[in-house]
User: What shape does this take?
Amino acid sequence: MQRSARAVCLVLTSLLLVLPAAAQYQFGDADLSKLTGNLGAGYTGAYGNQETSSHELGLNGSASLAGFYYNPNFLSFNFTPYYGENRANSDYRSVDNSSGLAFSSSIFAGSHFPGAVSYTRDYNSSGTFAIPGVPNVTTHGNSDNLGVGWGVNLPELPSLSVFYNRSNSSASLYGTDATTNAASQNIGLRSLYNLDGFQLNGSYNHSTSHSELPAFLQSQAESSSSTSDGYSFGVSHKLPFNGSAAVGYNHSDFTADSFGYHNNGSVGNAFANVSFNPTTKLSLTGNVNYVDNLAANLTELFLASGVPGQLFTSSGSHSLDVNTLATYRLNAEISFDGVVDRRDQSFLGQTYSSTVFGGGVTTARAFLGGVVSGTLRLADYRSDGVGGNKGTSSLSLIASANYSRNFEQWRFNGNFSYSQNQQTLLIAYLTSFYTYGASVYRPIWKLRWTGAFAGTHSGLVQQAGTLNSSESYSTSLGSRHLTASAGYSNSSGIGVLTPIGVAPPPVPNLTSQLLFGGKSYNFSLGSSPIRRLILSGSYSTSHGNTTSPSLASSYNTKSLNVLVQYRLRQMGFTGGYNRLQQGFSLTGARPFDGSTFYVGVNRWFDFF
Assistant: This one.
């Protein structure tokens, strides 16, 4: 890979140096319409406790080449390679020397048979593994993505589009021997047709995916794979009073193996909706949705989002949802809405039913010298009894408010929202949450000061121990030439492990649930004491822990970054230093401690 990347960089260097400036450059029937780039050379050093110390002189750069062949509507393309960019710009949270390319093209644009191809490839690029409250758990790895699409748009005939997408990625976490791998493929067909005012549509989709989860948050590494096939068709038509109606049907079959469990099922979903707008102030909407296998439908949704493990059986369940919504806008400041919703579900051997009657008001207007906007919705939520038990009745509430005001040199903004007893995908579970936040801005002499905080708390009403919460605080003080900022965040709750990190569980009692908690601090300083000179630095530290049924683990990260940039016309000087420390308690691997630095010059080119 290093040889090929260096070869690309040398070709780009030669191309940038020998091509004369012109409006465009032509090679036979190929026209190069735009070429820009950045070429640099410098001294790089890297050292750490898990890598061999290295020092070298080398090249880095990037380019963007756009053009077409014969005619822009026949074949157009854009090619963007880069080499050694991370060390060149001292990208935050990066101790890697990344290289890669991006290519996109279109063919027969504007014709009856348009097509497109895109491809990206990244080597040794940095990324993050998402753990709530810890934004900088750093990974490094390779990835590539390929996309192909083609269309057939003939007059008086149904349109047809075909697409294929493929992606692969592999990433390792610094401070562990854990590696995550993910691969997916997707191929599909879509068709549209207008027949005497009826809009017809149909589609087919086949997808496969495979992922491997690391063992640093659980007792052993696990893999997950799935396959799904689905098709759909529908029809819509305009109605009087600025209305429309649509009906459709979706069907999918899937199989999945995850955490040693096997999931499979078939789901059919029929739906219909109708809407009217008899006046500019009044709108009416009605919806009907039926799912013939609710358990399999939920399993498929969770697997698609990366939730692993044994989920739900796929037999003897269904869901029917019927609702109507009316909205009336009284004036520019106030609008009202009302809703009636009826649900019937059969799930895991039990039958559930619920009815919701509700309404609300939304307003936005001047208030106490500022502007206030808000929403208040109340609903009577009633569930029928299960197994001979008496049904329940509860108040469902949604309230939100936002207020902003300028007072002399002060600028205030605050927001708050609260939700109680809101229906989830399953009637058996209600959720409640509240969020809050505020920010303030004030100039102080020649400085600008800002402060902000935000928080969120959510959980399932019927399930103890499902509360997730997070809070963040930040402040900054700056002028034209100097800016300093600091921040703090914390998060705790319950989640599930997915290939891209820890995420809140969609429903309780999943086999892969774990507890998490983390805190993070960050500081940064930036200055531009003279024109064209930029100095910046940042430091962040975070620590936390996770507890699964089989393993308790703690982790910590520290990152320090310093960057110096000076530009004079098309020439520039760049110097950077980065240090990353990251470790996990129960992986058996030494904590990672690595540093890189770079000093070099670069030149920007704009040939045509």
